[in-house]
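Extended Data, record ParA family protein
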Amino acid sequence: MKRILFSAGKGGVGKTTLCRNLAAAAARSGLKTVTADLDPQATLTIWSRRRPKTAPTIPHFKVSWIDADALLDDGEMEDYDALFIDTPPSIETQPAAFQALLARADLIIVPTRATFDDAESVAPFLKHLREEGRPSVAVLNFVKPRVNINAVKLFLLEAGELCPVEVADRTDYARAGAKGLGLVDVPGHAGADEMQAVWSFIRGKVWGREEKRRKKHVAAA
């Protein structure tokens, strides 16, 4: 079971939106997916409750920091392929629990808006993760059309890895979220292709080596 942790150290960067959309993409890809919400605002939890029965099932846990170690228990999570963990904007109050999650995460996703103000806020965290050898990647969120963000991208690349796929600023992410859906659950939507591309990149980062070995084994059989 793989753990994918979402954290940015600040709010307003679309962390929960990215978490639930990628979880929906993972579920649609056939992975047994589960989500966990450590954020007191419980936005991911509310989304989970609204998820319709017609969409791929995604079990959910609302977890307090006191019980966060349950997310590290492989026995508790053995029935799942992927655990998506949403964290609150402020993690300074629970440094030990947060560090334990970072240590066990198979990938830490750091969302940010495509502005220098936001990039400068998340860059120290991204750089720290790289220096600690933690698998991590920044994802540009809420990207406006026809805006040159090359300088922001270069700045982030100095701190760590950057997802090559950008997430556009779409009001439909919120509309789908209000129904318990991700845009991948909306056939034909441009945002579905976009999020699927992000998911393909993330899946390659987390499962790439295992899937290559599996394909070689099948070919050799």
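Summary. The chain has a mean pLDDT of 92.
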